[in-house]
Amino acid sequence: MSQFWSPFVNNLVPYVPGEQPKVTQLVKLNTNENPYGPSPKALAAMQAEIGDNLRLYPDPNCDQLKQAIAEYYQVPVSQVFVGNGSDEVLAHAFNAFFRQGKPLLFPDISYSFYPVYCGLYGIEPKPVALDEEFQINPEDYRQDNGGIIFPNPNAPTGCLLPLTAVEQILQANPQSVVLVDEAYIDFGGDSAVSLVAQYPNLLVCQTLSKSRSLAGLRVGLAIGQPELIEGLERIKNSFNSYPLDRAAIAGAAAAFADVEYFQQTCNKVIESREQVTEALLGLGFEVLPSAANFVFARHSSQDAAALAQGLREQNIIVRYFNQPRIDQFLRISIGTDTENAALIKGLQQLLS
Ligand code: PMP
Prior knowledge:
By secondary structure, the protein is α/β, with parallel strands linked by helices. Helices cover 37% and strands 15% of the residues. Pfam families: Aminotran_1_2 (PF00155).
C-alpha cells in the first residue's frame, strides 16, 4: 500500500513468478525450461543481427517471424500474431476479448496468471473445478460467459484434452472467444491450430520458451482468424508497437525453420519424461498422465512440502504449490539425463 498508488494499484494481486535462483550448480527443475539449448541456427541468426543493425528499429510487424510461423503451421500470415513472450500475448487477448462484462471461465487448477489478468483488466474470474481425475470436463464449459481460457496440456497437471473435447467447447460457445494456451503442446499433444479455419472464435496461443528453448528471448505467438488477430494488433499498437527486438525476430524465425532440431529435442524430452515417470512410480509416487515437459506427482505417504525442502537441501529445486487440492503434489520439470538421475537419487535418499 502507498499513498501515491491509485486505489486500483492498491487492490492488484500480482503474479509471483517461479524462482530464478542466482546460485549456479543447481539442478533446476522448477520452471519448465528446456534442458537442451536453442537451435544452433537460431543462435547464429541472433549473432548475425547483433551489430550495426541495432541502430535501426526492428520491424514493428515482425513479418520475418510471422512468415516462419505461417510456413510451419501452413496458415496465412494474416492469422499470426507475435508478442514479447506468451504472457504478453495472453495479456493482449484478455484486454481485447475478455472485457465483456461477463465472467471468464477457466479451470480452477491452471495457469495462475489468468486470475491476475482478470484483476488487471476488471474481468470477473469464474474458476471451474477439474474432475476427480484432475481432468477438464468440456460439459462444464456451457455456462453464460464472456470468454473461456485453458492451457492444453493443462499446467501444472500436464494432462491433455483431446481435440474432440476442445471442439465440444468451441461448438458450445460460438459467441465467446475460446483461448487455448498451448505452452506445452509440442511434448505430445495435437495443436488446435488445425481447427482455426473452422472456428472463428478460436485463438491458439503458444510460446518459444519451452519446446524451442528460448525462454530468455521472450517470444510468444497467437494463431486465429484475421478478425481476432486484428483485435490483438489494435491492443498491441496502442501499447508497444515494437514488441520484439531485432535479435528476437531473427532468432525466433530461425528456430521455427529448424524443424529437425526441434523434433529431436522434443523427442528426447518426451523419452526422458517416460523414464522419470517410471522411476517415480517405482518410488511410490502417483504421477498424472503428462503430455508436457514436466510431471505432476504425489507420494503415497510423504508430505510434498517436506520432500521439496529435502530436495532443495540437496540443491535440487522443483515446484511446490501451497494451494488447496494440489498441496501434496510436486511439479517436476524434465531435465537432462544427469539432472533426472540426480532427482531420482535425491528422492531415494529422502524416502529411505
Ligand atoms: N502459459 C502457460 C500455461 C505457462 O505455463 C507459461 C509459462 N510459465 C506461459 C503461458 C508463459 O510463457 P512465456 O511468457 O515464457 O511465453
